[in-house]
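Researcher: Quick test of sequence recovery. Tokens follow.
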């Protein structure tokens, strides 16, 4: 039986993944004082990158997903969490786009697919460590 992973190693791995995606991790005291709900309490149970279920197919007259461009200016994990779960400036969240449209909203746009993939790894790590 393998020993359980050390918490410090998990934190270091999360920091490395965030750095690779161009994100800054908040200091421990800043994270504790965050105005946003913890990752654990607000995890959206939406499928990430899956096709929508039959009950979530586009309505008649709504055949194309919205042209959404993920924000390239976000440099913090907190900002990424906000875009992914709540949305920015009245725009839909990435989780809601995934839930409604699956991968169709980013299909055919190579830059968006790559950006999404990098940020998805950070979101998976946040959820894993929450």
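Model:
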């Amino acid at each position: 039986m393998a020993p359980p992973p050390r918490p410090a190693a998990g934190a270091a791995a999360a920091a490395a993944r965030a750095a690779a995606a161009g994100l800054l991790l908040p200091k421990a005291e800043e994270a504790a004082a965050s105005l946003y709900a913890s990752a654990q309490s607000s995890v959206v149970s939406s499928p990430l990158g899956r096709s929508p279920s039959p009950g979530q197919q586009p309505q008649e007259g709504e055949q194309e997903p919205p042209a959404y461009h993920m924000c390239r200016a976000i440099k913090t994990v907190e900002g990424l969490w906000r875009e992914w779960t709540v949305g920015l400036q009245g725009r839909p969240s990435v989780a809601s786009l995934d839930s409604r449209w699956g991968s169709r909203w980013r299909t055919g746009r190579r830059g968006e697919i790559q950006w999404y993939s990098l940020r998805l790894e950070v979101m998976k790590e946040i959820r894993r460590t929450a």
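The helical segments are 7-20, 28-32, 77-85, 94-101, 110-129.
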